[in-house]
Write a structure and sequence with these properties.
Strand order of the largest sheet of chain A: 5-4-1-2-10-9-3-8-7-6
Largest sheet of chain A: 10 strands, mixed
Largest sheet of chain B: none
Largest interface: A-B, 30 and 19 residues
CATH superfamily of chain A: P-loop containing nucleotide triphosphate hydrolases
Radius of gyration of chain A: 19 Å
Order of helices and strands of chain B: HHHHHHHHHHHH
Number of domains of chain A: 1
Number of strands of chain B: 0
CATH class of chain A: Alpha Beta
Shape of chain A: globular
CATH architecture of chain A: 3-Layer(aba) Sandwich
Structural class of chain A: alpha/beta
Strand content of chain B: under 5%
Number of helices of chain B: 12
CATH superfamily of chain B: MetI-like
Radius of gyration of chain B: 28 Å
Order of helices and strands of chain A: EEEHEEHEHHHHEHEHEEHH
Shape of chain B: flat
Helix content of chain A: 25-40%
Oligomer: heterodimer
Number of domains of chain B: 1
Distance between the termini of chain A: 50 Å
Chain lengths: 280, 306
């Protein structure tokens, strides 16, 4: 039961200790090598997720952005042939340690997916899902309302709480998924291209929402939309992909830093090219 | 007429100029082979569909014409008539059919769903899944009479008599593959993103299955169950060896038990007018039961489509 251990001292990322004035590192994701079967998908990637900040992961298609994100709540465990070398520290513990229960990890690190994936049940039961899983006894209705308000969805669904969540629009469904994820108050919210299936108005709503949410939850977001990363993120990690001699593609971290620095003064050539290419 | 000429000239000019696709007419024309083929094919499909409906409607029509005048309250509440006797009914056969189909449902639905969960969710890639799926698919093509023979050997011989339980078990064996198949398909239709979502919420694999996958798949599973139940209700062969028949109300589940299907089979070959008419009426009731089960199944499948 990791939640019973000490929670206040998060580890400082060894590689990033010089950034003073930032919040504590909540997740220190350090991937040495990551394989799907014999294919090395990601190497040498170290991304710290800081408290109260939004960390964006950007990069070209196939560079392993989502894979890196999915390391942080052990969703990759579902993939057959997944192997991992490195560590992901959460609250000072390596979540890949054999003693760790991945199910417990996921209850502390929530996730929102590219495609809105509400369950085929009522709006209310969707949000209460995590509360039920955790055997939360106190006022569930109040928690559900809080979560829906926090996800800026309450006013739109308060009269249809007991109707099917699948009847909501795509943008509403995605905010419902955010409400569902934050109802159990996870420490971190991982968002895997949360707006790529949404129209610009729904996208803007989610982006505004993220600015509110980051006060309570640390957020990591994968996005292929550079402008989005520039608008919402505090820190940005840029990943690139190399094609190996055998034809496999291996992603790796090129540059990590403050958002302003990455977008205005990227140090690495790949970053410069990628950011310039997208804007011209 | 004149613009027709102009258009034709334009088409010819385009094709002479070496256009990859010569411009063609925009208007309907029966001279184009594809138009003719399309019309013929549409007509053929419509005709064959109507032809396929003929047996269905003629069966229902015959049953209504021959059976409906025997349908009275007493048909549902009385026992079958003896030879030469007037009146009577098949109340015990309706009760027997419902009982045995109920037993079959109680056995096959839990087993079928559990097997489906194993094949779809728990161990689709384990060494066990292949033989299980192979065996289950083999069972799908199993003749119903063999289900009866099996239940005869496994239940009737062991318990020492024909019974509703033996009949129910025979029907259960026979519909189990269909239930499992439909349940596995229904679970397989649940989008992978739903499973991911539940897993990311910190649900254990068991919670993912019971709290998300099964409830989502439930309408589809129920459709499959109702279709299987409808099939079981009309099945005769498994019951001939197991429940046999009885002219009396069932006292116990271990008694010989009447069923609509066997009653129809028995009475239709008798030389008495009353019995033959009774068989027609029983057939009508059976078809109505099956139809009801199918309609319930369709109701669930429409709900799952939402």
């Amino acid at each position: 039961m990791i939640q019973e251990r000490e929670t206040t001292t998060a580890v400082k990322s060894p590689s990033d200790g010089k950034n003073n004035g930032d919040g504590d590192v909540v997740i220190d994701c350090n991937i040495a090598e990551l394989f799907y079967d014999d294919l090395k998908a990601v190497r040498d990637t170290n991304i710290p997720i800081r408290k109260g900040q939004i960390t964006a992961i950007i990069g070209p298609s196939g560079c392993g952005k989502s894979t890196v994100l999915r390391c942080m709540n052990r969703m990759n465990d579902l993939v057959l042939g997944f192997r991992f070398k490195g560590h992901v520290h959460f609250r000072g513990e390596d979540i890949y340690d054999p003693s760790i229960d991945p199910v417990a990890v996921r209850r502390h690190i929530g996730m929102v997916f590219q495609q809105p994936n509400p369950f085929s049940m009522s709006v209310y039961r969707n949000v209460a899902f995590g509360l039920r899983l955790n055997g939360y006894k106190g006022g569930r209705a109040q928690k559900v309302e809080e979560a829906l308000r926090a996800a800026a969805l309450w006013d739109e669904v308060k009269d249809q709480l007991h109707k099917s969540a699948l009847a909501l629009s795509g943008g509403q469904q995605q905010r419902l998924c955010i409400a569902r994820a934050i109802a159990t108050e996870p420490a971190v919210l991982l968002m895997d291209e949360p707006c790529s299936a949404l129209d610009p108005i729904a996208t803007r709503k989610i982006e505004e929402l993220m600015q509110e949410l980051k006060k309570r939850f640390s957020i990591a977001i994968v996005t292929h939309n550079l402008q989005q990363a520039q608008r919402v993120a505090d820190k940005t990690a840029f990943l690139f992909v190399d094609t190996t001699q055998e034809g496999g593609r291996t992603g790796y971290l090129v540059e990590f830093g403050d958002n302003k620095q990455i977008f205005e003064h990227p140090k690495e050539k790949h970053t410069q090219e990628y950011i310039r290419g997208e804007f011209s | 007429m004149e613009d027709q000429v102009v258009r034709n000239r334009a088409i010819r000019a385009a094709s002479e100029a070496g256009a990859a696709f010569p411009l063609s007419e925009l208007k309907h024309s029966l001279r184009r082979p594809r138009t003719v083929f399309s019309a013929l094919f549409t007509g053929l499909v419509t005709l064959l569909t109507l032809a396929a409906l003929v047996p269905l409607f003629s069966v229902v029509y015959m049953l209504l014409v021959r059976g409906i005048h025997k349908l009275s309250l007493s048909a549902f509440t009385s026992l079958p008539p003896a030879a030469m006797e007037k009146g009577g009914g098949f109340g015990n056969a309706i009760l027997g059919t419902l009982t045995m189909v109920g037993i079959a449902t109680l056995i096959s639905v839990p087993l079928g769903i559990v097997a489906a969960i194993f094949l779809a969710e728990v161990g689709p890639r384990t060494w066990l899944a292949k033989p299980v799926r192979f065996g289950a698919n083999m069972l799908s093509g199993f003749p119903s009479i063999l289900a009866g023979v099996f239940a005869y050997g496994a239940v009737v011989m062991v318990t020492g008599g024909f019974s509703a339980v033996a009949g129910g078990i025979a029907l259960a064996i026979w519909i189990l593959p269909a239930v499992r198949r439909r349940a596995e398909d229904a679970i397989g239709m649940v989008p992978a993103k739903t499973r991911e979502g539940a897993t990311a919420m910190g649900a254990t694999p068991t919670q993912v299955i019971w709290r998300v996958m099964l409830p989502t798949a439930l309408p589809g599973i129920l459709t499959g169950v109702m279709l299987a139940v409808a099939r079981a209700a009309g099945e005769t062969a498994p019951l001939l060896f197991t429940a046999l028949f009885s002219n009396y109300w069932p006292d116990a589940l271990m008694d010989r038990t009447a069923s609509l299907a066997v009653l129809i089979y028995n009475f239709s070959s008798m030389p008495f007018e009353n019995q033959i008419e009774m068989a027609w009426a029983a057939a009508l009731v059976l078809v109505l039961l099956v139809l009801t089960a199918n309609l319930i199944g369709q109701y669930f499948s429409r709900r799952s489509g939402q």
